[in-house]
Write a structure and sequence with these properties.
- The protein has 191 residues and is mostly helical.
- The protein has 5 helices and no strands.
- Helix 1 crosses helix 4 and helix 1 runs antiparallel to helix 5.
- It is rod-shaped and about 135 Å long.
């Protein structure tokens, strides 16, 4: 049972944990790229990073933990980035910032929510693991107690069977002695 629980817990949860960890890392890089994109004009590496960023953000935007109020702003940014073809990411970020939407603030909010979700997931995993260990310890204690009780009961049963065998021998001996006494009494009475 330990292996079954360990496999199911550690096969199911780390996938989500890995996704959230990757998301937090991606959002951190995205924020750096966008902030750099505002200051470095038309740098080839920045354009490539922003193209990667748009792909990552498109994936992240569908995540269940992304706050509803941030989805429209993120979608708007992604749509404007697609329309620009990510050829002038600085213009996209600057234009979006000037609209007052604040993609950087939105990404910071989403990153904070991802970190919160990751923390919650890890806490739940830790609590589940602790509960499992406590249950396992309790069951191990009960099993050890039941085994001790079984040993005691088996030993008592063996003592009872030995006592029964001794009693049966004594009964047989008494019956034999009684039969011999009756025979002896009959012989003496007949004389």
């Amino acid at each position: 049972t330990t292996e079954i629980y360990t496999l199911s817990l550690h096969d199911a949860l780390p996938i989500s944990e890995k996704e959230l960890t990757d998301t937090v890392d991606s959002l951190g890089r995205a924020l750096i790229v966008l902030k750099r994109g505002q200051t470095f004009l038309q740098h080839k590496d920045t354009q490539e990073e922003i193209a990667k960023l748009v792909t990552v953000l498109a994936t992240i935007s569908d995540a269940a933990w992304v706050p509803e109020q941030d989805r429209p702003r993120l979608q708007e940014f992604l749509q404007s980035a697609e329309e620009d073809g990510a050829t002038q990411p600085q213009a996209t970020v600057s234009a979006y910032e000037s609209q007052g939407g604040g993609i950087l603030d939105t990404l910071e909010d989403i990153k904070a929510k991802a970190e919160e979700s990751l923390s919650t997931l890890r806490k739940k995993e830790m609590e589940s693991s602790h509960e499992y260990e406590m249950l396992k310890m309790s069951l191990d204690t009960k099993i050890a107690d039941m085994k001790a009780r079984l040993r005691d009961a088996t030993a008592q049963r063996q003592r009872n069977e030995e006592a029964k065998a001794e009693a049966a021998e004594e009964v047989a001996s008494v019956k034999k002695s009684k039969a011999a006494d009756r025979k002896s009494t009959r012989l003496n009475s007949s004389h």
